[in-house]
Amino acid sequence: MVVRLTMGRRVAGAVRYNERKVQTGQAVQLVAENFAHSGLAQTSMAYKTKTLEHLTRRNPRVARPCLHCALAFHPEETLSDEQLRRLTAEFMNAIGYQAQPYLLYRHHDTAHPHVHVVTVSVAPDGRLISDAFLHRRVSRIRRQLEQRHGLRPAEDRLVENLAALRGVDTLPDEGKSRPHPAKARSNGDAEPLRLLRLVERAYRDLSTESKVQDRAQACVDDLILRQGVPPPAAHRAVELFLANRKTASPLPEGITQVQSTPSLKRMPTVRRRLR
């Protein structure tokens, strides 16, 4: 299972994207949860959009109130509509959006089963639903759902390096599609250093009380879920970062210390090994 999150400015763009898929037969709406008029929420795009936009106006200070996420699964996994409804409800509850009105669409435009969820982060009382460490929390929630429902883990190589996100890699913001991060990355020496800086930033933000192994896994998840880095490259970047840190903490099993300075500005050995 792979989760992709996008926080956008305009609700209309996210709703319109999914409704157009429905109109062309590439998707079907499974759920319109927590709307006052369930009938209109099933049939009227204007009602869905206005309901969600009405909530965003309760807190105009929130610059990106629209949460548009995709849950993608391995092509060998067969999930019924009811299973997807239940799994999505568990996911929304776990991230604190269980009381929010949200729309769930099942897309049929790729070989990989996947759903899209559209909602907003502003509660009816104007309160902003906390997004603190959201991507890291999603990583933990994803693993729990995988175990509970017997889903293929995101780190599994059979997921084919996030191929499950092909076709769901353009979550629109204001009507503009964005290229998948893997397609936008440049080649050459800049890429290894970019990955290492991303690892360094994620590692620094984690609690120092956590075990090295837990912090390493959180960094891997951050690269995979937020940056679109293929799992093998993410694992390798974290291994090399840890191996080049001057730390008294034991390294995860299978990683050997590399003789190099911990500074990212002076890591020629690591740069060559990441190529």
How would you characterize the overall build of this protein?
This protein is an alpha+beta fold. It has 2 domains: 2-165, BirA Bifunctional Protein, domain 2 (2-Layer Sandwich); 181-274, no CATH class. The protein is built from 10 helices and 5 strands; from the N terminus they run E-H-E-H-H-E-H-E-E-H-H-H-H-H-H. It has a 5-stranded antiparallel sheet with strand order 1-3-5-4-2, with helices on both faces. Strand 4 and strand 5 form a beta hairpin. Helix 4 (81-94) runs antiparallel to helix 5 and helix 7 crosses helix 8. The longest helix has 16 residues, at 134-149. The radius of gyration is 20 Å and the shape is globular. The two termini are 28 Å apart.
- Nearest-integer average pLDDT: 76
Low-confidence residue ranges? 157-170, 173-189, 246-275
Indicate the radius of gyration in whole angstroms: 20 Å
Helices, by number, come to: 10
Report strand %. 5-15%
Write the element-wise H/E pattern from the N-terminal end onward.
EHEHHEHEEHHHHHH
What's the β-strand tally?
5
SS-derived structural category: alpha+beta
CATH architecture of the largest domain: 2-Layer Sandwich
**Class of the largest domain in CATH?**
Alpha Beta
Widest sheet, order of strands: 1-3-5-4-2
How widely separated are the two ends?
Answer: 28 Å
Oligomer: single chain
Number of domains: 2
| Cα shape | globular
Main beta sheet: 5 strands, antiparallel
- Please estimate the helix content: 40-55%
